[in-house]
Design a protein that fits this description.
By secondary structure, the chain is an alpha/beta fold. The chain is 43% helix and 16% strand. The protein contains eleven helices and 14 strands. The strands form four sheets. A six-stranded parallel β-sheet has the order 3-2-1-4-5-7, with helices on both faces. Helix 1 packs across helix 7 and helix 2 packs parallel to helix 4.
Length: 322
């Protein structure tokens, strides 16, 4: 581990999720297996080279015990119920999304953690938000319990940073696209499902309209952004609520056309469901100039490069399963 971690370990909460699984791998690669403690509500069904513990983040005492026992210095709290699933169980989503954050912030305060990372989302924006090049600071009126919890969480992060001096850092992730994990109940998950169906069946039915533009990001860029903001000097982090983060903005129609350029027989049709209303309340593109100015953020993938990699890796995935 590098000197700035003071030989303390890194705790990843929600390590089996879409972001958590890939972030844990990136952290172990960067700092070594012994430097990372991964946790989730369940134990993985495969052996890991790093320490993996079962942890219910809603159990504050258990969280404090893990932090103390394993000399944790930095926490990445990725536990959450996402947008679509949150609308089906709103009270549960609020409890998990809020209590997990507050438990983590209290741990940072009482146990003197060095850094905390907590992810926000474009779901904090709503119908009154400017939808094109959505600015860092604007009106926010989220229309989902997921977005409400993320907006409230941003204010808690800023509060703990100002009142208690907690070094908490956050990113407003756009929709994330990964070949390593299956969709997890988000409104933007069509952009993952479509690749699997294109490779397996050659066709896909989108639950969003063909012209629904949303901000997206290829997972390698999201992981790089996460590591970059956590590596940045504290004085560079000017925003303690959450930074806008942008990657690629596209529509289901644009993505299906790009996939068809690699799989000519691919066909896509569109049958919007309840998730369309959620998508219509979100931005079409994001202004992340504050992240660029403060800690040098710049995306690395465009739509063509991401599509090429996704198809290649998902083909490998299904070939290995045969």
């Amino acid at each position: 581990m590098t000197a700035d971690t003071k030989n303390k370990r890194i705790l990843v909460i929600g390590a089996l999720g879409q972001i958590g699984s890939e972030l844990t791998a990136a952290l172990t690669e960067k700092y070594g297996n012994d430097a990372v403690v991964a946790t989730d509500i369940r134990i993985p069904d495969h052996k890991t080279d790093f320490l993996f513990l079962k942890l219910d983040i809603l159990d504050k005492d258990a969280l404090f015990q893990v932090i103390s026992q394993y000399r944790i210095g930095t926490v990445y709290n990725l536990a959450a119920i996402l947008s679509a699933k949150g609308e089906q169980q709103p009270q549960l989503a609020w409890e998990i999304n809020m209590k997990s954050l507050l438990n983590t912030l209290e741990a940072a305060r009482e146990l003197s953690l060095e850094k905390v990372f907590w992810p926000s989302s474009i779901a904090v924006f709503g119908p009154s938000t400017p939808r094109v090049h959505t600015p860092q600071n604007c009106e926010m009126d989220p229309s989902t319990v997921y977005g409400i919890s993320k907006l409230a969480g941003e204010r808690w992060c800023a509060y703990y940073a100002k009142k208690y001096g907690i070094d908490v850092r956050s990113l407003r992730y756009p929709g994330l696209i990964s070949y390593k994990t299956l969709p997890g109940g988000g409104t933007t998950d069509y952009a993952v499902e479509i690749f699997h169906e294109a490779v397996k069946k050659g066709r896909y039915t989108s639950f969003l309209r063909e012209d629904t533009a949303l901000p997206m990001m290829y997972m390698p860029d999201a992981i790089r952004a996460t590591l970059s903001i956590m590596d940045a000097p504290g004085e560079s982090i000017k925003i303690r609520s959450s930074y806008n983060l942008a990657g690629i903005s596209f529509t289901p129609g644009m993505l299906s056309a790009e996939i068809a350029s690699h799989i000519p027989s691919f066909q896509c049709d569109f049958q919007p469901d309840f998730r369309q209303e959620i998508a219509d309340s979100w931005p079409q593109s994001i202004d992340d100039s504050e992240a660029t100015k403060d800690w040098g953020w710049k995306p690395g993938f465009d739509l063509s490069g991401m599509t090429r990699e996704m198809i290649m890796h998902i083909r490998e995935y299904y070939t290995e399963k045969v």
